[in-house]
Write a structure and sequence with these properties.
Layout: H1 8-16, E1 19-26, E2 29-36, H2 44-54, H3 65-75, E3 85-87, H4 106-115, E4 119-122, H5 124-137, E5 142-152, E6 159-164, E7 178-190, E8 201-206, E9 212-213, E10 216-217, E11 219-223, H6 224-229, H7 238-246, E12 248-254, E13 260-266, E14 273-277, E15 284-286, H8 288-291, H9 298-309, E16 321-322, E17 328-334, E18 343-351, E19 357-368, E20 374-387, E21 391-399, H10 401-404, E22 413-422, E23 428-436, E24 443-447, E25 456-463, E26 470-479, E27 483-493, E28 498-505, E29 511-521, E30 524-535
Parallel strand pairs: 3-4, 6-12, 13-16
Antiparallel strand pairs: 1-2, 5-7, 5-14, 7-8, 8-11, 9-10, 12-13, 14-15, 17-18, 18-21, 19-20, 19-22, 22-23, 24-25, 25-28, 26-27, 26-29, 29-30
């Protein structure tokens, strides 16, 4: 049929596996957590069929995976159709569950099925996790994919414009485009009889509401093969997905006389790494080359020219001057740091010329949402660097925990902008880097024997590493086939103290199962733990 996958191992993974892995973090610090899809749990099939009723998909269309994916990508988010999940990216999650607290799709789908109202709140991996459950439940092979350094290109011109002011600082009013540290979407496997031969196979579908498509917040199905070759004329939404993995970052500055000077073009930052969970294991499988040719290759240029020919806008830079600074290099490095500790960042200059230079350098440290949008600047530091001919020099800047802790957001994400003006030549060096703090984890253990149909005991342990008491802490624990989601609230966890929570349950099915836990409170989010458990036959 239209969704037939001929490899048995792949069928076991992409249709039957009821747990998966979400890769998150940033390109420099890849993090992963488990997600329970639970497509075989009680009432989930009914909830998924209800979504097709909600989307008003005619019965004759329910055998067509293209139509199913198109309507589902709209109904997964609550924008414009009161769909399953309400998104929130502003760190306020009143009257709802913070996106980081969910451990799987089952609670969300069942709550929506009973209340018929959007469930609060989700961000991209939550939309993708629920979409994956929906697709696997209906027997459409599906996988959750993460694109690191994902472009959200507001005017879809394959160019993300970062505007600098006279001093080389970022002009936040003018800069509308953003680079997400990562973005999750799904791929669904199907034939595409509506497209020319060769564009079947994996299709991108995305339930996160970013832009409208034919008047609704939805995206896909877009053929991965068509995106790779630049054939973005084929439906649906290929130009948008193409731009997510293929933009250039352009730093430009307007001079006093009004001319626009391009200071730097970064062609390799966007879509650096695209990954999914490997078949039959918990490791990471890189699929970047399914989406794009080798950076800088002749095929890559050709695919870009094809995409432009088919109407992806590419801004030309003819009317602006661009002479990059070549004789001085600047490198930025951040020390590995645990949440709540001080750490240092290092800016290294390498002067390759025979001249002495002085560089006026400005470092701006910002707390950001994982979507690249700034919440607040917590660190400003400028200094003058003397650069001797043909030599390197490193400058350390200390970042104290007291400077960032009060402002911190869920994903402990920082974004550093460094700009330096070479005073003798007037040239500007600019770079940006996302950085993430190490977040503590939960330990899950089981006591005694683990046999199907017999009571077993699971404990979740957590040590509070912060220099403060954690208040109103919520713990969640679930595992498909072992236990339905259980929650517990704790009023306080003093600093350095250990919390131990014991849960009794009766596993239903034998085999290798996974337990997944999360901890959440205002001061600390994205704390996870997981454990593989072998449940014996009785």
């Amino acid at each position: 049929d239209a969704v037939y996958l001929d490899d048995e191992k792949e069928r076991e993974e992409y249709v039957l596996n009821d747990v998966g892995i979400v890769f998150h973090g940033s390109i420099n610090e890849i993090k992963l957590r488990s997600w329970s899809y639970g497509q075989f749990e009680e009432n989930i099939l009914d909830a998924c069929l209800f979504l097709m009723d909600k989307a008003e998909l005619e019965l004759s269309g329910r055998g067509n995976p293209i139509k199913i994916c198109r309507v589902a990508s709209a109904v997964i988010n609550s924008k414009d159709d009161n769909g399953v999940i309400a998104g929130s990216w502003d760190n306020t999650y009143t009257h709802g569950v913070p996106p980081s607290a969910w451990t799987g799709s089952v609670d969300i789908l069942l709550e929506y099925y009973s209340s018929k109202q959007p469930v609060r709140y989700g961000q991209c991996w939550v939309f993708a996790g629920v979409f994956n459950t929906f697709l696997r439940c209906l027997g459409i092979p599906a996988r959750l994919v993460t694109n690191y350094s994902s472009a959200h290109d507001n005017n879809a011109n394959l160019q993300l414009d970062f505007f600098l002011d006279d001093e080389g600082k970022l002009d936040t009013k003018l800069t509308k485009d953003s680079v997400w540290n990562y973005h999750c979407w799904n791929e669904a496997w199907m034939t595409r009889p509506d497209l020319p031969v060769g564009f079947g196979g994996w299709q991108v579908v995305d339930g996160t509401p970013q832009e409208t498509s034919d008047g609704m917040y939805r995206c896909g199905p877009a053929s991965v093969q068509a995106i790779k070759h630049g054939h973005v004329c084929f439906q649906f939404d290929a130009p948008f997905v193409y731009a997510e993995v293929n933009g250039d970052i352009v730093y430009s500055r307007r001079e006093k006389n009004g001319t626009q000077v391009i200071e730097k073009i970064d062609t390799t930052h966007i879509g650096q790494l695209i990954v999914t969970k490997e078949v039959g294991g918990d490791g990471m499988m890189e699929i970047t080359e399914e989406y794009k040719f080798q950076e800088g290759s002749a095929e890559e240029r050709l695919a870009l020219e094809t995409a432009v020919m088919y109407g992806v806008k590419k801004q030309t830079t003819q009317d602006t001057t661009y002479q990059p600074q070549t004789d001085v290099e600047m490198v930025f490095h951040m020390q590995k740091a645990v949440l709540g500790s001080d750490f240092k960042v290092t800016i290294t200059f390498r002067n390759k010329s025979r001249n002495s230079y002085t560089a006026t350098t400005y470092l701006s440290g910002n707390i950001v949402f994982y979507t690249g949008v700034t919440k607040s600047e917590f660190k400003k530091h400028s200094f003058s660097a003397k650069l001797e001919p043909s030599s390197s020099r490193a400058f350390d800047v200390l970042i104290k925990s007291s400077e960032y802790m009060s402002e911190l957001l869920d994903q402990a994400s920082f974004h550093f902008f460094v700009t330096a003006r070479i005073n003798e030549t007037g040239k500007i060096l600019a770079m940006q880097k996302a950085a993430i703090l190490e977040i503590p984890t939960l330990q899950i253990k089981t006591q005694g024997e683990t046999v199907a149909g017999k009571e077993m005991s699971v404990t979740v342990e957590f040590i509070n590493p912060l220099k403060q008491t954690l208040e109103n802490v919520t713990l969640r624990l679930e595992g498909p086939g072992v236990l339905r989601t259980v929650k517990k609230e704790f009023r306080q966890i003093p600093m350095n103290s250990t919390l131990i929570w014991e849960v009794k349950c009766i596993p239903k099915q034998p085999g290798l199962r996974k337990l997944i836990a999360s901890l959440n409170c205002d001061a600390l989010r994205h704390v996870y733990g997981e454990l593989n458990v072998q449940i014996q036959k009785p």
